[in-house]
Amino acid sequence: CGFVRGLPSGEWNPDEPVQRHLSSCLSRGPGRTLLHVFSFRKLWAFTGPGFLMSIAYLDPGNIESDLQSGAKAGFKLLWVLLGATIIGLLLQRLAARLGVVTGMHLAEVCNRQYPTVPRIILWLMVELAIIGSDMQEVIGCAIALNLLSVGRIPLWAGVLITITDTFVFLFLDKYGLRKLEAFFGFLITVMAISFGYEYVLVKPDQGELLKGMFVPYCEGCGPLQLEQAVGIVGAVIMPHNIYLHSALVKSRDVDRKNKKEVKEANKYFFIESAVALFVSFLINVFVVAVFAQAFYNKTNMEVFLCHPLSKPPECKYMFSNPPVCVQGVVLGCFFGPAALYIWAIGILAAGQSSTMTGTYSGQFVMEGFLNLRWSRFARVLLTRSIAITPTLLVAIFQDVQHLTGMNDFLNVLQSMQLPFALIPILTFTSLTSIMNDFANGLVWKISGSIVILVVCAINMYFVVVYVTSLNSVLLYVLSALLSVAYLCFVGYLVSYVFISAFTAMLCSNHQRFSLSFPAGELCTQSGHCCARSCRLFKAHFVRMSHDI
C-alpha cells in the first residue's frame, strides 16, 4: 500500500533502512482503502519512536523526583505527576506532527526559520540541556553500580564505567533500528519489573493512592511540598525530548503528498505515544508509592536505623552515607536484600536507556542547527567528555551528598531551557506556511499557549527558589544579569510568533506560501508581488534581529 516504505537515503541510518512493516492494506473494493479503520498491524509498524521518547520520562532525574515526592508528601502529589504527564503527551503530539507533516525535525525547521545569531544561541541552550541530562544519567548509573557492588565499585569508578558501556551499546545501532528499539523496550521492561516488584513488596494503601492521583489537592502541604510539585513538572517535561521525538518519527517514511496517509500516521504516532507515556506513568507511580508507604511521616532516626531484625549485612557499610541509605539501602533494610538489588537494577536500566536517547538527541540537534554531520561515536565522545569531567571531580573529591546537590542544580538547568523547546514547537506547528492543513487550530493555539505559560512560570519559580537558597550576593547579581539576557531572548522567540503570523496574513490574500521540502524556500509559488513582499519583510526582520 506504500504507507510504510523504509527510510529514504540520508535519513536516520541509510546503511540499515527500516524493514517494510506492512505488506498490505485493508481494502474495500478496487482502489479503495479503509484508512479510517484501526489496525493493530499498522500500530505495530509505527511502534518504536514513542517508546524511545518515553525513556526521558524514566531517567534518573525523574526517579529522584519520584522518591523525593513520596518521602516528602506521600501520595498527595500524584495528581501533579498525572497532569505533568498529560501535558507532556500533548507537547509530544506537536513534536510528532511536525516531523510527520514536514519530513523535518524541530532543529532543522529552526535552522531554516531563525536568523543565524538566534539560531546559534538556541542551539547552545539545547546543548546545555542535553549535557545536563547526561550528567544526571551518569550520576544515576554510578550510584546504581555502587549499590550493586555493595560499595566495592567506588563512585568515581562507576562514572568511568558509564563512558565505556555507552560506546558498547552504540554498536547495537549497526544491527538496525528495530533491534535498537527492541533493546530500549527491554530496558523499559526491566524498569517496570524492578519497580513493580518493589510496589508489590511494599503494598501501598490503594485508597490513598487513588485519592492522591485524582483529587487535585494537597492537604497540610507547605513550601517544601510546593517546591517538590514544581520539581515534578520540571523533571517530567524535558526540552531535548521535544527535539528527539520530532526526529524519531522520520524513521517511518510517509507519503506526505497524500493527506489521508499523513493524517493516519499522526493518529498512530499519537496512540503509540499515549501507550508509551501511560507505561512510564505507571513506573513513576510505582516509585512514588513505594517511598510514600515506606518513608512518609517517618523520622530520620527511624529511616537511619531501619529495623534491626531485617537489616541485611549488605547495609552495614552504607550507614555512614545517609543519601545512599535513603534511596536504595533502606529498602533493603526494611524489606530485605532483594529489594536493594532490584532497586539498583532499575536505576541502572533507567540510566543506561536515557543515556542512549541523550546521545541521539545531541546528534539530531547538532545536525539540524549547524548542518554538521558527526558519527554517533564522535558525538557521544564529545558530550560524554563534557558531562563526565565535573561529575568525576565531584565523585573523587566529594561524596554522594554533593552528587545529590549537583542533581538539584541540573534540574534547575533543565527548567531554564524548557522555553527553548516549547516556544519553537508551538510556533512552527501553528503556522500554515509550515504545516499547511495540519496547522494548529484556534483551540490548540490558545490551550498550547496557556500550557507553555503555566509550565514556564512553574519552572521559573523553581529557579528563583533555588537561587535564593544559595545565600550569596555575588550569585544574586550574576543571576540577575543572566536573567535579563535570558528574558530578552525568550521575548525575541515570542515576538517571532507574532511577526510570522503577521507575515502569513499579508501573503494569504495572494497565495498560500509554504516551506518546500527539502529546499525549504518561503513564497516559492505563484503571486510575484506577494512573494516579493514576504521576502522584503523577512529580510527586514532578519536585520532587526541582528540589531537586537
Main beta sheet: none
* DSSP strand count: 0
Contiguous helical run count:
22
- Note the overall shape: globular
Q: Ends: how far apart?
A: 51 Å
Share of helix, binned: over 70%
Strand content: under 5%
Main location: membrane
Family: Belongs to the NRAMP family.
Protein name: Natural resistance-associated macrophage protein 2-like
GO cellular component, one term: lysosomal membrane
Summary keywords:
single chain, 548 residues, mainly alpha, Hydantoin permease, 22 helices, 73% helix, globular, disordered N terminus
Q: Can you describe what's shown?
A:
It is a multi-pass membrane protein. Belongs to the NRAMP family. Pfam families: Nramp. By secondary structure, the protein is an all-alpha fold. The protein has a domain of 376 residues: Hydantoin permease, CATH 1.10.4160. The longest helix has 37 residues. It is globular, with a radius of gyration of 24 Å. The protein starts with 39 loop residues before the first helix and ends with a helix.
SSE layout and pairings?
Blueprint: H1 40-46, H2 49-54, H3 60-73, H4 78-102, H5 106-113, H6 116-148, H7 155-170, H8 177-202, H9 206-214, H10 223-236, H11 239-248, H12 259-295, H13 300-305, H14 322-335, H15 337-370, H16 376-397, H17 400-417, H18 419-430, H19 432-435, H20 442-468, H21 473-508, H22 528-547
